[in-house]
TrEMBL record:
This is Ferredoxin. One of its GO terms (molecular function) is electron transfer activity. It comes from Entotheonella factor. Pfam families: Fer4_15. Ferredoxins are iron-sulfur proteins that transfer electrons in a wide variety of metabolic reactions. Residues 3-31 form the 4Fe-4S ferredoxin-type domain.
Length: 72
């Protein structure tokens, strides 16, 4: 499944919940803002859980093949 993961850099507060949930996918950059290091670094369910754990809903996940937004 090809997921497009988008982090709203203006909304992200660097809480790191996404990194805790899926460290192969998300990391914090030098400004403590989440970046995508590998969009296929974890199963889709794990990536969706990471997005759900974001306290400010800064992560959007789109299933490119199905043309469907998985989160939010
Ligand atoms: S969980 Fe949300 S606020 Fe925290 S680092 Fe990830 S994107 Fe940013």
């Amino acid at each position: 499944m090809a997921l497009r993961i988008v982090v709203d850099r203006l909304r992200c507060i660097g809480a790191g919940n996404c990194v805790d949930a899926a460290p192969e996918v998300f990391q914090l950059d030098e400004k403590d803002i989440s970046i995508i290091v590998n969009p296929i670094g974890a199963p889709p369910d794990t990536i969706v859980t990471a997005a759900e754990n974001c306290p400010v809903d800064a992560i959007k996940i789109i299933d490119e093949q199905a043309g469907q937004q998985l989160y939010p």
